[in-house]
Design goal:
- It is found in: Cell membrane; Membrane.
- This is Ancillary SecYEG translocon subunit/Cell division coordinator CpoB TPR domain-containing protein.
- It holds the Pfam family TPR_21.
- Its main location: membrane.
- This protein is mostly helical and 214 residues long.
- It has a domain of 58 residues.
- It is built from 9 helices and no strands.
- Helix 1 runs parallel beside helix 3.
- 24% of the residues are buried.
Length: 214
């Protein structure tokens, strides 16, 4: 007798499952379809993103090979294309190499314009924006307004800034250009007294301090 009741219970369960499937089956199909679509979409995005990165790396590599071969104009055009079409990382690498080539060709104003573009690029890490600022000031025309250059450099002079000691050297030079020897000595002493400053930078600062105070 117990077996009969068990069979009846199983039949009722199957009936309830059948009713539930009739009621909610379409929703299950939709949910499964959405999961498949999202998974496929992510895989496509991932594949597309990786493919794009490989293409950008290849374009940059080819531009660098061209630069090394001495075809400067062709290399500059290729680097400009990479910088205009690539994501932030490859754009930064292309811009830095482009500016370096321009400096080699004595096209300093164009190189500085690229460094300033890097300095204002909010899509890259602040470290590299700071590098752009330092390089822009480093290669600025000697007739540039020293007050303007000092204002640009100011954030890099703060404690903890990545490029602080290079910025302090530049600030000392700008102060001397402006005729402010005391301010220049102050910047140099900051470098000399900083145990964490790079050895080469401290050595240069020590020699300059002797010259200024002698």
């Amino acid at each position: 007798m117990a077996d009969i009741f068990d069979e009846i219970e199983e039949d009722l369960k199957r009936d309830r499952m059948g009713d539930a499937w009739k009621k909610y089956g379409n929703y299950v199909y939709v949910a499964i379809a959405l999961i498949i679509a999202v998974t496929a979409g992510y895989k496509y995005w991932d594949y597309h993103n990786k493919t794009r990165m490989v293409e950008q790396a290849n374009q940059l590599d080819q531009a660098l090979v061209t630069a090394r071969s001495g075809e400067v104009d062709t290399a500059l055009a290729a680097l400009e294309q990479v910088s205009s079409e690539s994501d932030a990382g490859y754009r930064l690498l292309a811009e830095l190499r482009q500016a370096s080539l321009l400096l080699d060709e004595n096209q300093t104003a164009k190189a500085v314009a690229i460094y300033e573009r890097i300095a204002s690029d909010d899509k890259i890490d602040p470290i590299y924006r700071g590098l752009g600022t330092v390089l822009a000031v480093m290669h600025a025309d000697e007739t540039s307004d020293t007050a303007v250059l000092m204002e640009k450099l100011a954030p890099q002079l703060e404690a903890g800034a990545t490029w602080r000691y290079t910025a302090l050297e530049l600030a000392a030079g700008l102060a001397l250009r402006a005729g402010d020897k005391d301010q220049a000595i102050g910047h140099i002493k900051t470098i000399v007294d900083a145990a964490e400053a790079p050895e080469g930078v401290r050595a240069r600062a020590t020699e300059l301090l002797r010259a200024l105070e002698g």
